[in-house]
Amino acid sequence: MSENSDVTTDAPPAGFDAIVVGNGGLGLSLGLVLARRGQRVAVVGEAGRPLAASTAAGAMNGCFGEVTPTLMASEYGRLKLAMDVRATGMWDAWAEGLIEESDETRIRSANGTIVILNTIGVPGIDSAGYAAIRQAMEDYKEPYEDLEADQVQWLAPEPKSRPLKAMFIPGEHAVDTPALLRALPTAFTRAGGTLVDAHIDKLVLSGDRVTGVALRGSGQVLAADTVVLAAGASSHDLLSAIDPGIRDRIPALVSGGGVSLLVRTENGLTPDSVIRTPNRAFACGLHVVPRGDGVIYLGATNEILPHPISTAAIGEVNLLLSGIRQMRADLVNGHILKINVGNRPVPLDGYPLLGQAGVEGLWMMTGTYRDGLHQSPMLANEMAARILGEAHDPALDVFTPVRPPLQTMTREEVLETALTHTMAVGVEHDWHLPEDFPPLIEEQFRRSFKQMLDEMEHDFVPPPELLFFVDDDIHAALRRYYDAHS
Questions:
Q1: Nearest by Cα to 236 from 220, 255, 217, 216
Q2: Going by DSSP bridges, is the β-strand pair 145-147/163-169 parallel, antiparallel, or unpaired?
Q3: From its phi and psi, is residue 485 left (phi > 0), alpha (psi between -120 and 50) or beta?
Q4: pLDDT tens digits for 349-370?
Q5: Is 50 exceeded by the pLDDT of residue 53?
Q6: What is the DSSP pairing of strand 41-44 with strand 194-196?
Q7: Can you tell me the distance from the alpha carbon of 216 to that of 346, in angstroms, rounded to the nearest whole number?
Q8: Strands 15-21 and 221-229
């Protein structure tokens, strides 16, 4: 962070064993693991972290609470859950280590997670998601406890938004994002790492291998045999220097633009646990995360966009404000302390980019969508092992960046899922329409989505959210990616 005295502001040394591009939760975690291993590491990124996902994250240790029916229906989705479970098992030791190596006294911010099924959601998403969460926990033998929905402490919604069911997941906590983003750079520099407050202009190549990066403005080149792109939604842009024949075979990244609020409650009361709904309507559901001192995090929206955003649309803020009624009716008297805006890195096929990127010495560690911060300890150790040539989990090889699209749905399944979530957006916005209007609206969306799929002229199909939010730039990126693998 800019107030951290360990941040490098003068010209950094030119040579490193590894350069990590991106100073969010993932990039700093990898830098820390490599520095602990005795590597000379630079983490490069603007100190203020503009556009990053990490700074806007509610930072739930979302594992089982993130489960959806579509996740569990594919081998890739089940692998992502296995990665989440593995990461959950690492967080206690990871947080303790960060506290020991920094000036922080607390990294975690919530005692477990309460998942509610309320009257706002739709059966095909919320009810199905709630059931999928329970099934996944039973499969993994994860402890959970059913609660009387009307006895969940702190929760006091308006009557029309009351919960129907609730369950407590004692092993699923949350992270205090500001504390984490202070602890990581401090621990990294104390381990011998170098923070470079700069923006990367381009990769530097020599033949078919990467040799470093050039800094924007100064033109200074930082040299390293290993460069890792962990710059979130901006990572794919940095591939412009490599052969298009390689670059186009890597799924481009679009932005999952998200808005959240920090709210000081009127009476100073905050929940002890995370309180959340299942994932819904192309997003991560409504959730409240305690931040201490009478402050809660209320999140979060998700809109797929071709480029990162830096400001919040009024409609996104209104959606969050309408969500207040689902948690506590008296939150309307609270005070908004901050509107957070971030950009989740979303690959065109929806799955992470982990591994070598088609050029010797170049790696990617991004595309984690909503899982990045939770998976950061696990992915940092996994990627460090790969970079250092050590034993690693071969199951993650499927997420190598240079790959054909990872398909998990048929064309018809994508169409129907996109329709279900699209109509759920209206419910979440509390629309009031004549009874015969929703079927007419659904039919219009069905025709539009089917036309988009037909125009792609490939056997590949995008994830449902890309179908809903698709625009000309995203459509063109999909066509380039699909053409490269045809």
A1: 255
A2: antiparallel
A3: alpha
A4: 999 999 999 999 999 999 999 8
A5: yes
A6: parallel
A7: 25
A8: parallel
Residue 48: how many CA atoms within 13 Å on its side-chain side? Answer: 4
Cα separation, 472 vs 197, whole angstroms: 34
Q: What H or E segment, with its residue span, contains residue 168?
A: strand 163-169
Q: Tell me the two tokens of residue 414.
A: 């994508």
Global confidence as pTM: 0.93
Q: How far apart are CA 301 and CA 362, in angstroms?
A: 33
Query: 185 near 195, Cβ under 8 Å?
Result: yes
Task: Burial-class residue 401 by CB neighbours within 10 Å (0-12, 13-18, 19+).
Answer: buried
CA–CA gap between residue 293 and residue 413 (Å, rounded): 45
CA atoms within 13 A of residue 114's CA, in its CB half-sphere: 27
Backbone angles phi, psi at 339, to 5 degrees: -105, 115
| Number of residues in the chain | 486
Closest CA to 304 of 67, 464, 460, 424: 464
| Strand (E) or helix (H) holding 293 | none
What contacts 24+ positions apart, CB below 8 Å, involve 423-430? 423/122, 424/121, 424/122, 424/124, 424/125, 424/280, 424/281, 425/281, 425/282, 427/120, 427/121, 427/122, 427/281, 428/120, 428/121, 428/280, 428/281, 428/319, 429/319, 429/322, 430/120, 430/322
pLDDT in tens, 106-134: 999 899 999 999 998 888 899 999 999 99
Q: pLDDT of 239-276, one tens digit each?
A: 999 999 999 999 999 999 999 999 999 999 999 999 99
| pLDDT above 60 (res 144) | yes
pLDDT for position 13: 55
Sign of the C-alpha dihedral, residues 363, 357, 75, 410?
Answer: positive
Spatial distance between the Cα atoms of 166 and 144, rounded to a whole number of angstroms:
11
Using a 10 angstrom Cβ sphere, with 0-12 exposed, 13-18 middle and 19 or more buried, the burial of residue 484 is: middle
